[in-house]
Amino acid sequence: MSVIYLDNNATTRVDEAVLEEMLPYLTEYYGNPSSMHTFGGQLARNIEQAREKVAALLGAQPTEIIFTSCGTEGDNAAIRAALRTQPDKKNIVTTAVEHPAVYTLCKRLEKEGYRVTYLPVNGKGLIDLKELKASLTDDTALVSVMCANNETGTIFPIERIGQIVKERGILFHVDAVQAVGKVPLNMSESTVDFLVLSGHKLHAPKGIGVLYVRKGVRFRPLLIGGHQERGRRGGTSNVPAIIGLGKAAELAIQHVTEEVTQVKELRDRLEQGLLSQIPDCQLNGHPSMRLPNTTNIGFKYIEGEAILLSLDRFGICASSGSACTSGSLEPSHVLRAMGLPYTLLHGSIRFSLSRYTTSAEIDRVLEVMPAIVERLRMISPFKNEADEEHGWLQTAREQQGRGVMETVK
Ligand code: PLP
Protein backbone atom coordinates (compact mmCIF):
# COMPACT_ATOMS: atom_id res chain seq x y z
CA MET A 1 0.00 0.00 0.00
CA SER A 2 1.48 3.31 -0.97
CA VAL A 3 1.39 6.15 1.50
CA ILE A 4 -0.72 9.25 0.99
CA TYR A 5 1.29 11.80 2.92
CA LEU A 6 -0.81 14.75 4.05
CA ASP A 7 1.26 15.67 7.10
CA ASN A 8 3.71 18.10 5.56
CA ASN A 9 3.47 20.58 8.44
CA ALA A 10 5.03 17.86 10.60
CA THR A 11 7.85 17.23 8.18
CA THR A 12 8.47 16.97 4.45
CA ARG A 13 10.10 14.57 2.06
CA VAL A 14 13.67 15.51 1.09
CA ASP A 15 13.64 16.63 -2.53
CA GLU A 16 15.66 14.33 -4.82
CA ALA A 17 17.71 17.25 -6.08
CA VAL A 18 18.50 18.22 -2.48
CA LEU A 19 19.67 14.71 -1.67
CA GLU A 20 21.78 14.55 -4.81
CA GLU A 21 23.52 17.78 -3.91
CA MET A 22 24.17 16.58 -0.35
CA LEU A 23 25.56 13.10 -1.02
CA PRO A 24 29.14 14.03 -2.03
CA TYR A 25 29.45 15.97 1.24
CA LEU A 26 28.79 12.77 3.19
CA THR A 27 31.24 10.59 1.30
CA GLU A 28 33.80 12.55 -0.73
CA TYR A 29 34.02 15.97 0.90
CA TYR A 30 33.64 14.99 4.52
CA GLY A 31 36.24 17.37 5.93
CA ASN A 32 35.72 19.96 8.64
CA PRO A 33 35.27 23.43 7.12
CA SER A 34 37.13 24.94 10.10
CA SER A 35 40.31 22.93 9.31
CA MET A 36 43.51 24.58 8.13
CA HIS A 37 44.08 22.03 5.36
CA THR A 38 42.60 22.52 1.91
CA PHE A 39 40.55 19.28 2.05
CA GLY A 40 38.40 20.60 4.88
CA GLY A 41 38.92 24.33 4.58
CA GLN A 42 37.64 24.50 1.00
CA LEU A 43 34.18 23.52 2.25
CA ALA A 44 33.82 26.92 3.89
CA ARG A 45 33.25 28.34 0.41
CA ASN A 46 30.43 25.85 -0.25
CA ILE A 47 28.82 26.82 3.03
CA GLU A 48 28.94 30.47 1.99
CA GLN A 49 27.25 29.63 -1.30
CA ALA A 50 24.46 27.85 0.58
CA ARG A 51 24.18 30.86 2.90
CA GLU A 52 23.71 33.11 -0.14
CA LYS A 53 20.89 30.90 -1.41
CA VAL A 54 19.07 30.96 1.93
CA ALA A 55 19.57 34.74 2.13
CA ALA A 56 18.02 35.06 -1.36
CA LEU A 57 14.94 33.11 -0.23
CA LEU A 58 14.44 35.50 2.69
CA GLY A 59 15.46 38.71 0.91
CA ALA A 60 18.26 39.01 3.48
CA GLN A 61 22.01 39.57 3.43
CA PRO A 62 24.20 36.46 3.79
CA THR A 63 25.84 37.84 6.96
CA GLU A 64 22.38 37.96 8.58
CA ILE A 65 22.01 34.15 8.26
CA ILE A 66 23.11 31.86 11.12
CA PHE A 67 22.86 28.10 10.55
CA THR A 68 21.35 26.24 13.51
CA SER A 69 20.25 22.64 14.13
CA CYS A 70 16.48 23.19 13.96
CA GLY A 71 13.61 25.63 14.38
CA THR A 72 13.49 25.07 18.12
CA GLU A 73 17.12 26.10 18.50
CA GLY A 74 16.56 29.22 16.40
CA ASP A 75 13.56 30.28 18.50
CA ASN A 76 15.43 29.66 21.76
CA ALA A 77 18.53 31.49 20.51
CA ALA A 78 16.54 34.55 19.34
CA ILE A 79 14.47 34.91 22.49
CA ARG A 80 17.40 34.34 24.84
CA ALA A 81 19.55 36.82 22.87
CA ALA A 82 16.87 39.51 23.08
CA LEU A 83 16.65 39.03 26.85
CA ARG A 84 20.41 38.88 27.46
CA THR A 85 21.10 42.04 25.51
CA GLN A 86 18.44 43.93 27.53
CA PRO A 87 18.92 42.67 31.09
CA ASP A 88 16.76 45.45 32.59
CA LYS A 89 13.63 44.41 30.68
CA LYS A 90 11.53 41.59 32.05
CA ASN A 91 8.45 41.39 29.85
CA ILE A 92 7.88 39.28 26.71
CA VAL A 93 4.74 39.64 24.62
CA THR A 94 3.68 36.60 22.62
CA THR A 95 0.46 34.83 21.61
CA ALA A 96 -1.56 32.01 23.10
CA VAL A 97 -1.13 29.90 19.96
CA GLU A 98 2.65 29.67 19.52
CA HIS A 99 4.44 26.40 18.82
CA PRO A 100 5.97 24.75 21.92
CA ALA A 101 9.40 25.95 20.68
CA VAL A 102 8.27 29.42 21.84
CA TYR A 103 5.34 28.67 24.14
CA THR A 104 7.11 26.19 26.42
CA LEU A 105 10.22 28.40 26.52
CA CYS A 106 8.03 31.31 27.63
CA LYS A 107 6.55 29.14 30.39
CA ARG A 108 10.12 28.37 31.52
CA LEU A 109 11.06 32.05 31.39
CA GLU A 110 8.17 32.84 33.74
CA LYS A 111 9.84 30.52 36.28
CA GLU A 112 13.08 32.44 35.71
CA GLY A 113 11.41 35.69 36.74
CA TYR A 114 10.15 37.09 33.43
CA ARG A 115 6.60 38.32 32.91
CA VAL A 116 5.00 36.90 29.78
CA THR A 117 1.90 38.34 28.13
CA TYR A 118 0.04 35.73 26.06
CA LEU A 119 -2.24 37.61 23.67
CA PRO A 120 -5.55 35.80 23.16
CA VAL A 121 -6.88 34.98 19.69
CA ASN A 122 -10.37 35.11 18.25
CA GLY A 123 -12.32 32.19 16.80
CA LYS A 124 -10.35 32.40 13.55
CA GLY A 125 -7.01 32.41 15.35
CA LEU A 126 -6.11 36.10 14.97
CA ILE A 127 -4.93 38.50 17.68
CA ASP A 128 -6.45 41.95 18.24
CA LEU A 129 -3.90 44.58 17.18
CA LYS A 130 -5.31 47.12 19.64
CA GLU A 131 -4.75 44.62 22.41
CA LEU A 132 -1.19 44.10 21.19
CA LYS A 133 -0.55 47.85 21.26
CA ALA A 134 -1.97 48.17 24.75
CA SER A 135 0.16 45.29 26.03
CA LEU A 136 3.51 46.92 25.15
CA THR A 137 5.33 48.64 28.01
CA ASP A 138 8.75 50.17 28.67
CA ASP A 139 9.60 46.85 30.29
CA THR A 140 8.88 44.83 27.11
CA ALA A 141 12.11 43.31 25.76
CA LEU A 142 10.63 41.40 22.86
CA VAL A 143 7.49 40.60 20.90
CA SER A 144 7.47 37.03 19.59
CA VAL A 145 4.74 36.13 17.10
CA MET A 146 4.64 33.23 14.68
CA CYS A 147 4.15 33.96 10.98
CA ALA A 148 1.84 31.01 10.29
CA ASN A 149 0.27 28.65 12.76
CA ASN A 150 1.39 25.04 12.43
CA GLU A 151 -2.02 23.59 13.36
CA THR A 152 -4.48 25.80 11.51
CA GLY A 153 -2.22 27.55 8.98
CA THR A 154 -3.66 30.93 10.03
CA ILE A 155 -1.26 33.71 9.02
CA PHE A 156 -0.68 36.67 11.32
CA PRO A 157 -0.33 40.10 9.66
CA ILE A 158 3.38 40.20 10.52
CA GLU A 159 4.24 43.58 9.04
CA ARG A 160 1.25 45.33 10.66
CA ILE A 161 2.26 43.78 13.96
CA GLY A 162 5.88 44.80 13.32
CA GLN A 163 4.90 48.43 12.75
CA ILE A 164 3.20 48.58 16.14
CA VAL A 165 6.19 46.88 17.79
CA LYS A 166 8.73 49.17 16.10
CA GLU A 167 6.81 52.34 17.08
CA ARG A 168 7.81 51.41 20.63
CA GLY A 169 11.41 50.50 19.64
CA ILE A 170 10.92 46.90 20.77
CA LEU A 171 12.68 43.85 19.27
CA PHE A 172 10.52 41.64 17.04
CA HIS A 173 10.98 37.88 16.67
CA VAL A 174 9.02 35.84 14.12
CA ASP A 175 8.82 32.05 14.10
CA ALA A 176 8.42 31.52 10.36
CA VAL A 177 9.04 27.76 10.43
CA GLN A 178 5.70 26.98 8.74
CA ALA A 179 5.69 29.96 6.39
CA VAL A 180 9.07 29.83 4.65
CA GLY A 181 8.73 28.30 1.19
CA LYS A 182 4.92 28.46 1.32
CA VAL A 183 4.46 32.24 1.21
CA PRO A 184 6.93 34.89 0.00
CA LEU A 185 8.93 36.74 2.67
CA ASN A 186 11.27 39.70 2.19
CA MET A 187 13.46 40.77 5.07
CA SER A 188 14.87 43.74 3.15
CA GLU A 189 11.48 45.46 3.46
CA SER A 190 10.50 44.14 6.85
CA THR A 191 10.19 45.15 10.49
CA VAL A 192 11.39 41.75 11.70
CA ASP A 193 14.60 41.57 13.78
CA PHE A 194 14.83 37.80 14.26
CA LEU A 195 13.28 35.19 11.96
CA VAL A 196 13.47 31.42 12.25
CA LEU A 197 13.11 28.63 9.70
CA SER A 198 13.59 24.88 9.76
CA GLY A 199 14.98 22.82 6.86
CA HIS A 200 12.79 19.77 7.26
CA LYS A 201 9.62 21.80 6.62
CA LEU A 202 10.79 22.76 3.14
CA HIS A 203 12.14 19.54 1.65
CA ALA A 204 15.62 19.75 3.19
CA PRO A 205 16.71 17.19 5.79
CA LYS A 206 16.05 17.25 9.51
CA GLY A 207 18.79 18.68 11.70
CA ILE A 208 19.28 22.03 9.99
CA GLY A 209 17.67 25.40 10.56
CA VAL A 210 18.35 29.09 10.23
CA LEU A 211 18.18 32.07 12.51
CA TYR A 212 18.05 35.37 10.64
CA VAL A 213 19.35 38.28 12.73
CA ARG A 214 18.94 41.73 11.22
CA LYS A 215 22.22 43.57 10.71
CA GLY A 216 22.85 45.90 13.66
CA VAL A 217 20.67 43.96 16.12
CA ARG A 218 22.68 42.94 19.17
CA PHE A 219 23.12 39.21 19.64
CA ARG A 220 24.46 36.75 22.24
CA PRO A 221 24.99 33.14 21.19
CA LEU A 222 22.98 30.35 22.77
CA LEU A 223 25.62 27.72 22.03
CA ILE A 224 28.99 28.87 23.29
CA GLY A 225 31.94 27.10 21.70
CA GLY A 226 34.06 27.49 18.60
CA HIS A 227 34.11 30.46 16.26
CA GLN A 228 31.72 28.92 13.71
CA GLU A 229 29.00 31.15 12.23
CA ARG A 230 31.17 34.21 13.01
CA GLY A 231 31.12 33.37 16.68
CA ARG A 232 27.32 33.38 16.84
CA ARG A 233 26.77 29.62 17.07
CA GLY A 234 29.43 27.21 18.26
CA GLY A 235 29.52 23.64 16.95
CA THR A 236 30.99 21.91 13.88
CA SER A 237 29.02 22.92 10.82
CA ASN A 238 26.63 20.28 9.51
CA VAL A 239 28.00 20.60 5.99
CA PRO A 240 25.77 18.12 4.08
CA ALA A 241 22.62 19.53 5.68
CA ILE A 242 23.69 23.13 5.03
CA ILE A 243 24.35 22.28 1.37
CA GLY A 244 20.95 20.56 1.24
CA LEU A 245 19.21 23.56 2.75
CA GLY A 246 20.89 25.82 0.20
CA LYS A 247 19.46 23.70 -2.61
CA ALA A 248 16.04 23.50 -0.91
CA ALA A 249 16.00 27.31 -0.64
CA GLU A 250 16.78 27.60 -4.36
CA LEU A 251 13.93 25.19 -5.14
CA ALA A 252 11.56 26.99 -2.76
CA ILE A 253 12.05 30.22 -4.73
CA GLN A 254 11.14 28.34 -7.91
CA HIS A 255 8.15 26.57 -6.38
CA VAL A 256 6.54 29.29 -4.27
CA THR A 257 4.08 30.26 -7.04
CA GLU A 258 3.09 26.59 -7.35
CA GLU A 259 2.39 26.52 -3.59
CA VAL A 260 -0.06 29.39 -3.82
CA THR A 261 -1.76 28.07 -6.97
CA GLN A 262 -1.63 24.28 -7.52
CA VAL A 263 -1.17 23.20 -3.91
CA LYS A 264 -3.86 25.63 -2.78
CA GLU A 265 -6.24 24.36 -5.47
CA LEU A 266 -5.87 20.79 -4.22
CA ARG A 267 -6.20 21.93 -0.60
CA ASP A 268 -9.39 23.82 -1.44
CA ARG A 269 -10.86 20.83 -3.26
CA LEU A 270 -10.14 18.61 -0.28
CA GLU A 271 -11.59 21.13 2.15
CA GLN A 272 -14.73 21.88 0.19
CA GLY A 273 -15.28 18.19 -0.52
CA LEU A 274 -15.08 17.26 3.16
CA LEU A 275 -17.20 20.17 4.35
CA SER A 276 -19.91 19.51 1.78
CA GLN A 277 -20.04 15.70 2.09
CA ILE A 278 -19.82 15.32 5.85
CA PRO A 279 -22.43 16.79 8.18
CA ASP A 280 -21.43 18.54 11.40
CA CYS A 281 -17.92 19.55 10.59
CA GLN A 282 -16.29 22.94 10.31
CA LEU A 283 -13.08 24.65 9.27
CA ASN A 284 -10.76 25.65 12.11
CA GLY A 285 -8.71 28.75 11.34
CA HIS A 286 -9.00 31.74 9.08
CA PRO A 287 -10.73 31.05 5.74
CA SER A 288 -8.40 33.26 3.68
CA MET A 289 -5.45 34.45 5.80
CA ARG A 290 -4.03 30.96 5.79
CA LEU A 291 -1.17 28.87 4.45
CA PRO A 292 -2.07 27.52 1.00
CA ASN A 293 -1.26 23.93 1.99
CA THR A 294 -3.12 23.59 5.30
CA THR A 295 -6.67 22.74 6.27
CA ASN A 296 -7.78 21.89 9.79
CA ILE A 297 -11.28 20.50 10.07
CA GLY A 298 -13.23 19.72 13.22
CA PHE A 299 -15.55 16.69 13.06
CA LYS A 300 -18.09 16.94 15.83
CA TYR A 301 -18.71 14.18 18.39
CA ILE A 302 -15.71 11.98 17.53
CA GLU A 303 -12.06 11.65 18.55
CA GLY A 304 -9.36 12.90 16.20
CA GLU A 305 -7.13 9.98 17.18
CA ALA A 306 -9.79 7.50 16.08
CA ILE A 307 -10.03 9.25 12.70
CA LEU A 308 -6.24 9.15 12.34
CA LEU A 309 -6.13 5.43 13.10
CA SER A 310 -8.86 4.78 10.55
CA LEU A 311 -7.06 6.88 7.94
CA ASP A 312 -3.86 5.03 8.75
CA ARG A 313 -5.50 1.77 7.68
CA PHE A 314 -5.74 3.29 4.21
CA GLY A 315 -2.15 4.53 4.32
CA ILE A 316 -3.29 8.13 4.75
CA CYS A 317 -1.10 10.25 7.04
CA ALA A 318 -2.66 13.30 8.68
CA SER A 319 -2.44 14.78 12.12
CA SER A 320 -4.68 15.72 15.02
CA GLY A 321 -4.45 18.77 17.21
CA SER A 322 -4.16 16.71 20.36
CA ALA A 323 -0.84 16.02 21.96
CA CYS A 324 -0.71 12.65 23.65
CA THR A 325 1.45 13.70 26.55
CA SER A 326 1.75 11.98 29.91
CA GLY A 327 -0.74 9.34 28.87
CA SER A 328 -3.70 11.70 28.68
CA LEU A 329 -5.14 13.20 25.54
CA GLU A 330 -4.87 16.94 25.95
CA PRO A 331 -6.78 18.95 23.35
CA SER A 332 -4.56 21.33 21.40
CA HIS A 333 -3.77 24.61 23.17
CA VAL A 334 -4.22 26.35 19.81
CA LEU A 335 -7.79 25.17 19.27
CA ARG A 336 -8.61 25.78 22.93
CA ALA A 337 -7.30 29.35 22.64
CA MET A 338 -9.62 29.80 19.64
CA GLY A 339 -12.54 28.90 21.90
CA LEU A 340 -13.69 25.81 20.01
CA PRO A 341 -16.59 23.98 21.64
CA TYR A 342 -15.85 20.74 23.46
CA THR A 343 -17.60 18.66 20.78
CA LEU A 344 -15.13 19.90 18.14
CA LEU A 345 -11.97 20.21 20.24
CA HIS A 346 -11.26 16.49 20.30
CA GLY A 347 -12.24 15.72 16.72
CA SER A 348 -10.02 18.04 14.71
CA ILE A 349 -7.76 16.83 11.94
CA ARG A 350 -5.04 18.72 10.10
CA PHE A 351 -4.31 17.86 6.49
CA SER A 352 -1.17 19.53 5.17
CA LEU A 353 -0.22 19.15 1.52
CA SER A 354 2.98 19.70 -0.45
CA ARG A 355 4.06 20.06 -4.05
CA TYR A 356 4.21 16.24 -4.15
CA THR A 357 0.50 15.85 -3.36
CA THR A 358 -1.50 14.55 -6.32
CA SER A 359 -5.09 14.98 -7.38
CA ALA A 360 -5.65 11.20 -7.13
CA GLU A 361 -4.54 11.30 -3.48
CA ILE A 362 -7.12 13.99 -2.71
CA ASP A 363 -9.79 11.89 -4.48
CA ARG A 364 -8.91 8.94 -2.27
CA VAL A 365 -9.24 10.93 0.95
CA LEU A 366 -12.59 12.29 -0.21
CA GLU A 367 -13.66 8.75 -0.98
CA VAL A 368 -12.85 7.26 2.42
CA MET A 369 -13.48 10.07 4.90
CA PRO A 370 -17.31 10.25 4.91
CA ALA A 371 -17.64 6.57 5.78
CA ILE A 372 -14.92 6.75 8.44
CA VAL A 373 -16.66 9.65 10.15
CA GLU A 374 -20.06 8.01 9.94
CA ARG A 375 -18.81 4.74 11.41
CA LEU A 376 -17.06 6.50 14.29
CA ARG A 377 -20.12 8.58 15.04
CA MET A 378 -22.27 5.48 15.28
CA ILE A 379 -20.06 4.13 18.07
CA SER A 380 -19.36 7.52 19.63
CA PRO A 381 -20.02 7.98 23.36
CA PHE A 382 -21.41 11.42 22.40
CA LYS A 383 -23.98 9.77 20.14
CA ASN A 384 -26.92 10.57 22.39
CA GLU A 385 -25.81 14.14 22.91
CA ALA A 386 -25.45 14.50 19.18
CA ASP A 387 -28.83 12.95 18.50
CA GLU A 388 -30.39 15.47 20.84
CA GLU A 389 -28.48 18.34 19.29
CA HIS A 390 -29.64 17.90 15.71
CA GLY A 391 -30.53 14.33 14.97
CA TRP A 392 -27.42 14.33 12.76
CA LEU A 393 -27.07 10.57 12.76
CA GLN A 394 -30.39 10.24 11.02
CA THR A 395 -29.33 12.78 8.41
CA ALA A 396 -25.99 11.07 7.90
CA ARG A 397 -27.68 7.71 7.29
CA GLU A 398 -30.18 9.21 4.89
CA GLN A 399 -27.47 10.97 2.95
CA GLN A 400 -25.33 7.89 2.62
CA GLY A 401 -28.27 5.57 1.93
CA ARG A 402 -26.04 2.49 2.21
CA GLY A 403 -23.91 0.46 4.60
CA VAL A 404 -21.05 2.32 6.20
CA MET A 405 -18.09 0.15 5.37
CA GLU A 406 -19.39 -0.63 1.89
CA THR A 407 -18.10 2.66 0.61
CA VAL A 408 -14.64 2.26 2.07
CA LYS A 409 -12.19 0.20 0.07
N1 PLP B 1 7.82 26.51 15.08
C1 PLP B 1 6.80 26.02 14.38
C2 PLP B 1 5.68 26.92 13.98
C3 PLP B 1 6.78 24.67 14.02
O1 PLP B 1 5.74 24.19 13.32
C4 PLP B 1 7.86 23.84 14.41
C5 PLP B 1 7.84 22.40 14.09
O2 PLP B 1 6.82 21.82 13.89
C6 PLP B 1 8.91 24.42 15.13
C7 PLP B 1 8.86 25.76 15.46
C8 PLP B 1 10.07 23.59 15.58
O3 PLP B 1 10.91 23.27 14.50
P1 PLP B 1 11.93 22.05 14.60
O4 PLP B 1 11.15 20.82 14.49
O5 PLP B 1 12.86 22.23 13.44
O6 PLP B 1 12.62 22.19 15.90
Share in β-strands = 15-25%
Structural class: alpha/beta
Across the major sheet, the strand order is: 2-8-7-6-5-3-4
Q: Name the bound molecules.
A: pyridoxal-5'-phosphate
Q: How does the overall form come out from the CA principal axes?
A: globular
Fraction in helix: 40-55%
Q: Which spans of ≥5 residues are poorly predicted at pLDDT below 50?
A: 392-409
Distance between termini? 12 Å
DSSP strand tally: 15
From the alpha-carbon coordinates, what is the Rg to the nearest angstrom? 23 Å
Q: Biggest sheet, open or closed, and with what strands and sense?
A: 7 strands, mixed
The overall pLDDT, averaged over residues, is 92
Total helix count? 16
Describe this structure in words.
With 409 residues, the chain is of the alpha/beta class. The protein is built from 16 helices and 15 strands. It has a seven-stranded mixed sheet with strand order 2-8-7-6-5-3-4, with helices on both faces. It is globular, with a radius of gyration of 23 Å. Bound molecules: pyridoxal-5'-phosphate (PLP). Pyridoxal-5'-phosphate (PLP) binds next to helix 5.
